[in-house]
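Hey, resending since the last one bounced:
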Amino acid sequence: MHLAPLAEGWSVAHAGRRKELLDKAAADSGAGERALAVAADVGQPESVKGLFAATKAKFGRLDLLFNNAGMGAPAMPMEELPVEKWQAVVAANLTGTFLCCQEAIRIMKAQSPKG
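The structure tokens again:
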């Protein structure tokens, strides 16, 4: 969880697959109602839609998107890497960025002033 924006007074929605860790980090931040923790898999379109819907419901708007999700493939010879592991990397690193940008732009274009 990136805490610097909270320290600067921003309201921040944090997303990750492990809700209990997000909840703990949000509580430890001391930001109270300005910190929202949402369990989400950025490689899944419905999960991303839920994340942004929760963010808009909580804060009413979106002004900044910071894509920080990512993962690497396990250390092994490429010819032994299962395609499912590779697809998980692509889902997190590429598809997740695309999906989050798509949802963020939808919200930002619809609000006034725009994000």
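The beta strands are 12-16, 35-39.

Sorry for the duplicate.
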